[in-house]
Amino acid sequence: MRRAFATRFAAALIVTATAAGCTASATTGPSGNSGSRSTGQVRDLTDAEQVVVERAEGLLTKKCMAARGFSYWVGPIASVDERKTAVYVLDDLAWVRKHGYGGRLVRAAERAGNPNFAYSNAFPREDRVRYTRALEGMPSDTVSVELPRGGTVEGPAGGCRAEARGELYGDHETWFRVSTITENLAPLFLPDLMKDKRFVHALASWSSCMRKEGHDYRSPEHLRLELARSTDGMSDGKAHAVEVELATAEAVCAGEDASGLAATARDLEREYRAKKLGPYADTIATHQRLSLAALARAEDITGGAS
User: Fold this and answer.
1) If you average pLDDT over residues 15-33, what whole number do you get?
2) Tens digit of pLDDT for each residue in 75-118?
3) CA separation (Å) from 19 to 5, 163, 165, 194, 203?
4) Distance of CA 239 to the CA centre of its chain
5) pLDDT by residue (tens digit) across 185-210?
6) DSSP H helical segments within 35-171, as ranges?
7) CA 130 from chain center: how many Å?
8) 153-156 long-range CB contacts below 8 Å, 24 or more apart?
9) b vs e for 279-290, b when ≥16 Cβ sit within 10 Å of the residue's Cβ?
10) Which parts of the sequence are annotated with region: Disordered (predicted)?
11) Quick one: how far is CA 77 from the chain centroid?
């Protein structure tokens, strides 16, 4: 379990350092702070709102699968706290003193597993195929999207998941297109952001601060990669203690009284998004509008409970 967590944790940080948190739809920027950003009459969903939407999607999928003769369990759905684990740099001292890097949250989610996998894997092959087609549609029934920097992503256009998203967002294919594009916009500006002198200076100051605290790391992603290796095989208690110590140092050093890395990352994200993502303004706005419409429907479906 520790090795599985370490691998997942390291992989998540590689993505975070080069892509995540700077997409048009993300609510956690490179700074690691959550919250919606307004854009005219539309905005991104907060993490708490996203949980409500995902729960509603699960409930709609469950209803659809039941109509086709199958059981379906809602979730697992990442909590608001779990979503804070995939960020570039932490600066929420209260959170890190409680959760470290969220390792316990991730490991608890892994232990809980996904009951849908166990359920479908218990079927004979023929019934497992029926289950998959009910959930995902026919293999030939797909929707594809060209990514901003090249390449294509395909997803199911039929089945209960697509039906659930269609009911939530109003148009599954439009939602798949705009969400896929907005989740892959970071390569358009993040390389330039990370070469910006302001970011480079703040990162160097952060690294210097960490050395003074007794932790020699070039960057937050370097720290987390090393953390994943060093805690592999530790007991849960020891790993958590290491996490809390390092995450607290990271957050202190990212603050305004030290390097200002968190604020710099936030400011530069806004600046570079404005500079580079103009051609995708309509796509971003459509994504936000569909998300807010889905939230309204999701609140009716779930009673607003997250």
Assistant:
1) 34
2) 899 999 988 877 889 999 999 999 999 999 988 888 888 999 99
3) 21, 29, 25, 11, 17
4) 23
5) 999 999 999 999 999 999 999 999 99
6) 47-67, 80-83, 93-99, 103-112, 115-121, 125-136, 159-169
7) 30
8) 153/180, 153/184, 155/180
9) ebeebbbbbbbb
10) 25-45
11) 11
**pLDDT tens per residue across span 213-244:** 999 999 999 999 999 999 988 999 999 999 99
Written as six digits, the tokens of 93 are 């001292």
Domain positions in the chain: 2-55+78-111+165-300
Beta strand 38-39 with 142-146 is unpaired
Q: What distance in Å separates the CA atoms of residue 156 and residue 166, rounded to the nearest whole number? A: 12
- Find all residues with CB under 8 Å of 267, minimum gap 6, and list them: none
**pTM (2 d.p.):** 0.83
Q: Which two tokens stand for residue 63?
A: 């209803």
Other Cβ atoms less than 10 A from the Cβ of 154: the count is 11
Residue 36's pLDDT is 39
